[in-house]
Exostosin GT47 domain-containing protein (Tripterygium wilfordii), 439 residues
Amino acid sequence: MAKKTSKRRKPTGQLSGEPLLAVFVTALVFVSAFCFFLFVRSIDNGNLPTIQQVNSRSPMKATTFSAVSNFSNAGGQAAVPSARIAVVESGPYHDWKIFAADFRDMMRQLKIFVYPDLYRKVGSFAEIFLAHPNPFNPKIGNYVSEHLFKLALLRSSLITTNPEEAHFFFLPFSVNHLRNDRRVHSEDAIADFVANYVVKISQEFTFWNASAGADHFFVCCHSVGREASSKHPHLHNNAIQVTCSSSYFQRFYIAHKDIGLPQVWPRRDEHPLNPPQARDKLAYFAGRIQNSRVRQELLDLWGNDTDIEVFDKSPLRYEEGFRRSKYCIHAKGYEVNTARLSDAMHYGCIPVIVSNYYDLPFANVLDWTKFSILINQADISLLKKKLLSIPTEAYLAMYHDLCRVRRHFKWHIPPKGYDSFHMTAYQLWLRRGIHRLSH
Ligand SMILES: *[C@@H]1O[C@H](CO)[C@@H](O)[C@H](O)[C@H]1NC(C)=O
Ligand SMILES: *[C@@H]1O[C@H](CO)[C@@H](O)[C@H](O)[C@H]1NC(C)=O
Ligand SMILES: *[C@@H]1O[C@H](CO)[C@@H](O)[C@H](O)[C@H]1NC(C)=O
């Protein structure tokens, strides 16, 4: 364009005679016609100018053109730097800004109603519904998240006593208590108890029938909790199960409807993190091998390794391995989940997740690939090669991101900030908006 314009202007400035102008105009028309002819011919032959040809003739046009037509070309290149900045800002989050804004809305608006059994101290089964008096009792161990959720909810600003303003209704039975109650105990009896309870509240209150249970939820950390809903189709199909054993591969777990709950070990103390340079072992796993092919394979492959430490019965104190290793292996046992994942986070050790079809907690907010390694169970023999191939820089970036997400795997009573309780509540918030029948 610039060339053509200067050509046209130059002659008009220097040659003012009419005949010369006429000759020039004629020439211009002729040249234009010839170019048009070439253009049409190239279309006829299907030889449209390539992006590179257009690019070499007119950089401005090419950029616009290729940006629209092919993202990996010039236009794409222009987009890369800003994409990189976004990644750095979001870090371990898919989109921190969107999440943080929506989270603020949730904190202002979300309301949860709890059925009164949580407060009633009457009846021989009252304990099943009450908050646990001592969740840090060592006997609770792995299942403490279930109790901490309830205790945090009771102290949170999200609870309401007005069911009309509630987005969700909490069914406060404890699967952990049911499991420990001799009168109930078996999976079958737990499922009967739970089904009867749902029938009871659907008769006493109008809320269940208004949505067929779709705005109701229950929380459990014991894997038998999954079976708890098995004898009540609406409870199973519609209500939300908030569970530690969230596996795409298990019956009675429904991905996208149900919610993965972080499983944590009851731990009050907080120690300073061992920095990356003080971690001289590559990887660590300690845990019962029984019932787990994956763990057996780990032991067979790396049982005598000096970089990767795998123990059935650890000679170290359990925490020591987490403190001195860069990577900590979370290998499927009987279930996809164990508290080992949040143990690794607690001690600043990058989790290596060898647990297929685990619906990882908060995966719609957190980009797990930024602070953990996900390995197919079938690729376990490549584990060491894979870990050794991670450059130091990438490891340090993961360590940094892990430090940022640790707060989501901690419970506080009362709940605070972006802790496990509020993150779980946010998962409910994303599932709100259920249509209700009037009553
Ligand atoms: C985009 O450009 C790249 C690189 O030139 C090429 O490999 C790819 O096939 C193009 N894709 C499309 C959809 O044109
Ligand atoms: C809810 O529906 C069930 C089954 O249809 C019925 O037995 C129950 O009485 C209803 N609850 C109320 C509060 O109307
Ligand atoms: C580890 O070494 C011991 C002693 O040499 C041996 O008996 C055992 O089979 C080895 N285990 C593995 C998994 O290689």
Observations:
- Residues 1-17, 37-88 have pLDDT under 50 and may be disordered.
- The CA atoms of residues 55 and 198 lie 68 Å apart.
- Residues 276-409 form a domain with the Rossmann fold fold (CATH 3.40.50.2000).
